[in-house]
Amino acid sequence: MNSPTPNHPVLLLHGIWDTGTIFCPMTRYLNSLGWETHDLNLTPNNGDGCLKQLAQQVAEYADRAFAPGTPFDLLGFSMGGIVGRYYLQRLSGLDRVQRFVSLSSPHNGTWVAYGSLRLGCMQMRPNHPFLQDLNQDIATLDRVNFTSIWTPLDAMIVPASSSQVPVGRNVKVWVPLHRDMVSNPNSLKAIATALAEPVKVGARNRASK
């Protein structure tokens, strides 16, 4: 059973080599529809650090920005989707987040990650132990409204189908470039739809404790 809820604040997590400024078009769009958006600059943003460390920055930001018991939603672009998953699955984020949206995230790894020996990049390779650990209990993400938005034309997530997951909803959009997923109208509409979904009763009850 689902129930409609007001718009929650949305925390946006950027991808590798990016900063929070990449979300400017998305922020303007979501703000115009009534959402309050937040972003932070994950450091280091070049793959030098373990993705776990970046997820800990998310946890620290959430504790500062949102009052205890205040529900919020989470959106991660590319690497940010994997960082968001670690926060949810390993740092108790599932107790706070009610909707999670990933945009072109390498949930099953990307062959492009073989182009770097930086730790964070290697963790996004297919079958890397970091991803295997998260994927072995990916079913826990069914506790939130989870939507993975992806494009078959993605040249950074190889194969592009790596963004598809066995839980929640997989939404295909025809966006020509990986980076355009944060600004293309097709992607933005899919994001707004995902963030407007009625929250699952269990998630609502957790946030009200």
Features:
8 strands; alpha/beta; disordered C terminus; single chain; 209 residues
Itemize the secondary structure elements and their pairings.
Elements: E1 2-3, E2 10-13, H1 24-32, E3 37-39, H2 51-65, E4 72-77, H3 79-90, E5 97-103, H4 119-122, H5 129-136, E6 145-150, E7 169-172, H6 185-195, E8 199-200, H7 201-207
Parallel strand pairs: 2-3, 2-4, 4-5, 5-6, 6-7
Antiparallel strand pairs: 1-8
Helix pairs in contact: 2-3
Task: Give structural notes.
There is one protein chain. By secondary structure, the protein is of the alpha/beta class. The protein has one domain: Rossmann fold (3-Layer(aba) Sandwich), CATH 3.40.50. The protein contains seven helices and eight strands, in the order ββαβαβαβααββαβα. It has helices spanning 24-32, 51-65, 79-90, 119-122, 129-136, 185-195, 201-207, and strands at 2-3, 10-13, 37-39, 72-77, 97-103, 145-150, 169-172, 199-200. A six-stranded parallel beta sheet has the order 3-2-4-5-6-7, sandwiched between helices. The chain has a two-stranded antiparallel sheet with strand order 1-8. Strand 4, helix 3 and strand 5 (97-103) form a beta-alpha-beta unit. Helix 2 crosses helix 3. The longest helix is centred in the first third of the chain and has 15 residues, at 51-65. It is globular and about 40 Å long.
Quick take:
The protein is an alpha/beta fold and 209 residues long. The protein is built from 7 helices and 8 strands, in the order ββαβαβαβααββαβα.
